[in-house]
Amino acid sequence: MIEKPRIRVKTFKIDGIDVTGRADQTVLDVAIENGIDIPRLCYMEGLKSIGACRLCLVEIEGQRGLISACTARISEGMSVLTKTDRLLKYRRQILELLFSERNHQCAVCVSNGHCELQNMAISVGLTHVDIAYLNPKLNIDASHRRFLNDPNRCILCNRCVRVCDEIEGAHTWDLLGRGVDTRVVTDLDEHWGISESCTGCGKCVHVCPTGALSEKGVSVAEMAKRRNFLPYLKSNRGIS
Amino acid sequence: MKKITIDPVTRIEGHAKITIDLDDSGKVTNARMHVTQLRGFEKFCVGRPFTEMPSLTARTCGICPVSHLISASKACDMILAVKPPHTGRQLRRVINLAQIMQSHALNFFHLSSPDLLLGFDAPKEDRNIFNLIKTHPDIARNGIGLRAFGQKIIEQLGGKRIHPGWIVPGGVSHKLEPEIKDWILKGIPEQIKVTRDILDWFKKEIKNFNEEIRTFANYPTLFLGLVNDNGELEHYDGKVRVMDHIGKIVADKLDPREYQSYIGEAVEEDSYLKSPFYKPFGYPNGVYRVGPLARLNIADRCGTPIADEEHAEFKSLERGPILSSFFYHYARLIEIIYCLEKIEMILKTDDILDPHIRSFAEPNRLEGIGMSEAPRGTLMHHYRIDENGLITFANLIIASGNNNLAMNHGVYQVAKHFIDGNNITDGALNRVEAVIRAFDPCLSCSTHAIGKMPLMLELRDSNKKIVDIKTRGI
After folding, report:
1. What does pTM read for this prediction?
2. Residues from chain A contacting residue B54 (CB–CB below 8 Å)
3. B222 in helix, strand or coil?
C-alpha cells in the first residue's frame, strides 16, 4: 500500500475571511480556491510563479513590506489584506507604468478584446495614464513563418520563457537587458525564424497575455488565445 | 497689399485655413486653401504587419473609416493573391454603400443644409444644425434619421459604428445573420422616401442659387472615378474612367493597379495635402475632380431604377458634364438613393447569407494596391511588404486629396466674385468656406460637425503685418 504524504493544513485570514490551505500552497492559490480575486498578469496555472508583474502584491498584518501573493507561502494565523488603499494605488501605478513603457495601441491590436492587460485596466478603472509615455522604437520580429513577436505589446511577464522551458523543454525564449530595456529574445538574440531550438509548438503565443506574441495572418481583435492545454500538459508530465 | 486668413475653415471634416491676397484697391489677387496638419500615416505604418493595415489606416478618419477598410483590405487581398468569395465581396459592398450613404447625409444635412435652407447670408449664429431643428424640424429629423440608419447598418454588420473590424484581408470576418438582413431591408423604403422628398425640394430651390452655381468651382476640369464593365456607377470594384470637360472619355478601363502610370502627385509648399493630377495632361493641367459629381458625370447610368431616373434628369442640366461644384450636393442626394436601392438589391440575392465569406492565404505578393470609391471620391491604398509580411512602403491617395487643385481653384473663383477688400461681409466669407464644404473634404479623422472652433480672420498688409483681426463663432 502506497503511503500518502502527510499534508499539513494551515488556517489563516484573507480580507478577514477564514480560509484553509495546504502548507505548500501560496496565498494566491488559496485566494483563488476561495473565490477571492487578486489581480495578476504574470501568474498562470500550470507554470511556476515568479512574482514578476507585482500586481498581486498583498499586505500581511504585522509586516511592513508588501509581498507578491503568487510566491508567498501561507502560514498559520497570518492575516492577508488584498484591497487596502495602498494596494489599490500601487496596482494602478503598476498598470500605468506597463502602459507607458511600451506602445500598447489597443484599438489596432490583434488581441483587442482578448487582452489580459486591457481587461485589467478596465477592471481597475484605468481611463488614462498620467505617467509620460516612453514611446520606444521597437521592431517587430516577423521572421517566423507562423508567428509574430511584437515587443511593443510585451509586458515582460515571462510566461513565454517559462512555458517554453518548463512545459515544452526547449528554452528558446529568455530575457535580455535590464530594467526598461529588457526584452524577450529567442536563442542568443537571433531572429525567431532561424531559431534552432524553437519547435514551433506555439505554446508561447497562447500563454502571452497581450498581443506581443501572435499568429500571423490574424486581423485586429482576432487573436483569442487558447490556454486549456496547460494544466493538462502539466499533469501529464507529473509537474507539481 | 492685404491678406485675409480664414482659419480654421468651419463645418468641414478636419483642419484647413484659407488665405486671400488683396491688392491695394481691395481686389482679390490670389486665394489658397492650406491643409494645416501632418498625419504621417504613410511613415508610421512602416514596420507593421500588413494585416494591421485595414485597422491602422481606418484611423485616418472617423467619418469614412469603412472606405479605408475597403481599400486597405483590397490591397491586402492583392498581397495574399486571393479573391474574396462572392458573398464576402457583396457584404463588403453593402457596408461600403451604407458608409457612403451616412457620410453624404452628414454633409448634406448637418454641414451644408444650414447654408441652403437658411441662406448663405443668414446670421452666422443661426447657420447650424441646431437652429435647423428649430426652423425646419422635419428636414433636420429626417436627415439625422437617414445618417443614423447608415450608421446602424455599419454597426449591425461590423459590430461598431466607427472603425468596425469586420472587413479583413480575404473578405469579411463573419457571415450575415438573417435578422440583420431583414432589419436593413425593412428600413430602406422609408429612407428612400425621405431622400426623394429632400431631392425634390433641392431641385425646386436650384434657381435661387444661380450666383453660387456660377462661381462654386465652376470651371473645366477632368473627372475621374470607377465604373463597372457596363459603364454604371461602381463604388467597390470596377475600372477607372477619365472624362474631360466636354464629356469626351479620354481614358477608360484603366487598371487601378497601374494607378501610378496615370496619376501623379505634386507637392505644394504651403499645404500638407498633396495635389494629384492626371499624368498624361501634366501638372497642373491634369487637374481632375472626384466624388459624387465626378461619378455621376462619368457613369452612363447608375444601375438602379430610381437613381437612374434622377441621373438622367441630373445629366440634362448641361449638355456635357456638370461643371459647377455646387452640384456636388445634388449628386450626393442621388447617390444616397442609389446606395439604398443597391443595398436592397444585394440583400435580396439568394447567396447573401452564404457562410463562405473569407479566403485565407499567406502573402503571395510583395505589393498590393486597393482602389475603391469613398464618399468623397476615389481612394487608393498602395503597400509594399518585405518577405516577412512587414510594411516597407505605403502610399495613400485620399479621396479628398484628389480634389485639392479643384478646391483651390474654387476658393479663388468664389473669393474673386464675392470678396471686396473694402467691405468684407460675413456672407462673402461664408461662401468661401461653403465652396470647400461643397466638395465635402475630409481633411482628417477629426470631426468638427458643427464647427465649434471660432473662425479667425487676419488682415495683413504687404509686409505681413496684421492690421486687423476679426473673430466669429460657428
Report:
1. 0.90
2. 219-220
3. strand
CB burial of A18-50 (b: ≥16 within 10 Å; e: otherwise) equals ebebeeebbbbbbbbeeebebbbbbbbebbebb
Question: Which residues from chain B sit within 8 angstroms of residue A222, using beta carbons?
Answer: 165, 168, 173
Contact of B87 with B394, CB cutoff 8 Å: no
Please identify among residues 45-104 of chain B the ones whose CB lies closer than 8 Å to any CB of chain A.
Answer: 47-49, 51-52, 54-56, 59
Domain ranges of chain B: 2-37+403-472, 83-218+324-360
Phi, psi of B238 (to 5 degrees): 95, 180
**Of all helices (H) and strands (E), which one includes residue B184?**
helix B178-205
CB pairs under 8 A between A and B: 48
Q: Are B51 and A108 a contacting pair at CB < 8 A?
A: no
CB contact under 8 A, B49 and A142: yes
Domain ranges of chain A: 9-83, 103-229
Its ipTM equals 0.90
CATH 2.60.40.1120 fits B83-218+324-360, yes or no: no
Q: Is B388 on the interface with A (CB under 8 A)?
A: yes
Cβ–Cβ gap A222/B173 under 8 Å: yes
Residue B277 grid coordinates: 493630377
Give B68-100 pLDDT, tens digit per residue.
Answer: 999 999 999 999 999 999 999 999 999 999 999
- For B195-233, what is each residue's pLDDT tens digit? 999 999 999 999 999 999 998 889 999 999 999 999 999
Percent of chain B clearing pLDDT 90 (strictly above) = 60
Q: Do A219 and B51 touch (CB under 8 A)?
A: yes
CATH topology of domain A9-83: Ubiquitin-like (UB roll) (3.10.20)
Q: How confident is the model at residue B10 (pLDDT cuts 50, 70, 90)?
A: low
CATH of A103-229, one of 3.40.50.720, 3.30.70.20, 3.40.30.10, 3.40.50.300: 3.30.70.20
* pLDDT at residue B463, rounded to an integer: 58
